[in-house]
From TrEMBL, chain A:
Organism of provenance: Streptomyces collinus (strain DSM 40733 / Tue 365)
Subunit structure: The glycine cleavage system is composed of four proteins: P, T, L and H.
Record domain Aminomethyltransferase C-terminal: where: 290-369
NCBIfam families hit by this protein: gcvT, PRK00389.1
Domain GCVT N-terminal per the UniProt entry, residue ranges: 13-267
Enzyme class, first EC level, given as a word: transferase
Cellular component annotations (GO), alphabetically ordered: cytosol; glycine cleavage complex
Protein name: Aminomethyltransferase
The protein's Enzyme Commission number: 2.1.2.10
Cited SUPFAM superfamilies: Aminomethyltransferase beta-barrel domain (SSF101790), Folate-binding domain (SSF103025)
Any single biological process term in GO: methylation
TrEMBL record, chain B:
Coiled-coil stretches noted in the UniProt entry, renumbered to this chain: none
An example Gene Ontology biological process: protein lipoylation
Native organism taxonomy: Bacteria, Bacillati, Actinomycetota, Actinomycetes, Kitasatosporales
PANTHER family registered for this protein in UniProt: GLYCINE CLEAVAGE SYSTEM H PROTEIN (PTHR11715), GLYCINE CLEAVAGE SYSTEM H PROTEIN-RELATED (PTHR11715:SF3)
Origin superkingdom: Bacteria
This protein's name: Glycine cleavage system H protein
């Protein structure tokens, strides 16, 4: 692996000065952790954490036909999203397979920002561009136009309030508004991927270092720490949030992933995947496929993606994500299991961990829900 | 990070203490502990079992990965560190001290164990 082939964010030098362990993530050289990933995880749950998420892919869709294009290209009803609000949605293939999960922000009446996973940004960009044919809309690659910094955790509103005049109290979860943070123009969004309250700040790359330093200073007194992708993964896993490539793939429809609610058949006009998704919905109702469940270990060994879930010696499913949970103090996993074994409390379920069948408890997701 | 001079090292990042009454202590280096990240599970060899130099004798699991544990020497396991079994984070916080892994009565050792300086040079840059 040659590091010269990797892309670097605007905060790269800062990460190195903070002693970050870097890792190749979807072609980007990203911070994995700065110190202990467990400490970073706990900081986000109890205080606040600062993340560089500049590898995420931003795509701007503008024009009189922007809403109609997104309604056609994505499975959600994007036209119904109010200005200043955001929505979790998916882009699917014609056969219903999930190409990516997305957050779409409606920035103005005819302007949307689509945020794709780093590993899928090009795929999403290509699909949107292709699907834009015949619509009065422009699809723009804005991946290089933004750095993305997230502040997550219970102390994050206080930290941000000390740096902005924006009306954060009026900013609901899954909403975004333009404002200024520490003198830097930013799209301030109340979104995140940690299960905590928090904000994602989209800024010009040339302002990223200044903003990161201002946030670091503002968070000094309340225990804010820089956080890497490693703790982001355990945070989202505890919160039961799916990750593309693990819980979501082109081999699954949203109904197979237990996320059929994101598909809006009642919206106006046709959309890519409608027919296949209607069949998948009917199939899920009559003859449920494997179901995404939570597993909590009784022992200490850790289930990993790809490990078989077993019962009575037979394979009944597969682990999609697994890690030690700092909050629960036990290993946890998400897994697709046969519907017959999916009910919380089902007896006799285990995971094959390198040849040994370790006992696990089937639980409902999420593993962790913050107190509001 | 500095690697204690009085220890010897394997290329697989274990350290080996000088033998006392034929028994040496084995752990993994700070370099290896940092590379692993937070160690959350340690499966150590059984007391009384024999281990072969360079062969798997257990595993260390961190948040993101699992690594085989090798013995740098051949011999019989005389003791394992129960503190590490109960609190694997000792491997990260004190790799050369409280985070030692097992003691082995050495019957044979490979010729290519490294000195502290050689090991440091191997992992420089």
């Amino acid at each position: 692996m040659s590091s010269s082939e990797l892309r670097h964010t605007a905060l790269d030098a800062l990460h190195r000065s903070l002693g970050a362990t870097m890792t190749d993530f979807a072609g980007w050289d990203m911070p994995l952790r700065y110190g202990s990933e467990r400490d970073e995880h706990v900081a986000v749950r109890t205080r606040a954490g600062l993340f560089d998420l500049s590898h995420m892919g931003e795509i701007t869709v503008t024009g009189a036909g922007a809403a109609a294009l997104l309604n056609h290209a994505l499975v959600g009803n994007i036209a119904s999203v109010g200005v200043g609000r955001a929505r979790y949605t998916m882009i699917c293939q014609a056969d219903g397979g999930i190409l990516d999960d997305l957050i779409v922000y409606r920035l103005a009446e005819t302007e949307y920002m689509v945020v794709a996973n780093a590993s899928n940004a090009q795929v999403v960009l290509d699909a949107l561009t292709e699907r834009a044919g015949g619509f009065d809309a422009e699809v723009r690659d804005d991946r290089d136009a933004y750095a993305l910094i997230a502040v997550q955790g219970p102390e994050s509103p206080g930290i941000l309030k000390s740096l902005t005049d924006a009306d954060l109290d009026g900013l609901k979860y899954y909403a975004g508004l333009p404002g200024t943070v520490a003198g830097v123009p930013a799209l301030i969004a109340r979104t995140g991927y940690t299960g905590e309250d928090g904000f994602e700040l989209f800024v010009k790359p040339e302002h990223a270092v200044e903003l990161w330093q201002a946030l670091t200073k503002a968070g000094e007194g309340v225990g804010l720490v820089p956080c890497g992708l490693s703790c982001r993964d355990t945070l989202r896993l505890e919160a039961g949030m799916p990750l593309y490539g693990h819980e979501l793939t082109t081999a699954l429809t949203p109904f197979d992933a237990g996320l059929g609610r994101v598909v809006k058949f009642e919206k106006e006009g046709d959309f890519v995947g409608r027919e296949a998704l209607a069949e998948a919905a009917a199939r899920a109702e009559q003859n449920p496929p494997r179901v995404l469940v939570g597993l909590v270990a009784e022992g200490r060994r850790i289930p990993r993606a790809g490990f078989a879930v077993v019962s009575g010696g037979a394979v009944i499913g597969e682990v999609t994500s697994g890690a030690p949970s700092p909050t629960l103090g036990k290993p946890i996993a998400m897994a697709y299991v046969d519907a017959a074994h999916a009910a919380p409390g089902t007896e006799g379920v285990g995971v094959d961990i390198r040849g040994s069948h370790e006992p696990f408890e089937v639980v409902a997701l999420p593993f962790y829900k913050r107190q509001k | 990070m500095s690697n204690p001079q009085q220890l010897r090292y394997s290329k697989e990042h274990e350290w080996l203490s000088a033998a006392e009454n034929g028994v040496s202590t084995v752990g993994i280096t700070e370099f290896a502990a940092n590379a692993l990240g937070d160690v959350v599970y340690a499966q150590l060899p059984e007391v009384g079992s024999t281990v072969e130099a360079g062969e798997t004798c257990g595993e260390l699991e961190s948040t993101k990965s699992v690594s085989d544990l090798y013995s740098p020497v051949s011999g019989e396991i005389t003791e394992i560190n129960e503190d590490v079994v109960n609190d694997p984070s000792l491997v990260n916080s004190a790799p050369f001290e409280g985070g030692w892994l097992f003691k082995v009565r050495v019957t044979d050792e490979p010729a290519d164990l490294l000195s502290a300086d050689e090991y440091t040079a191997q992992n420089a840059g």
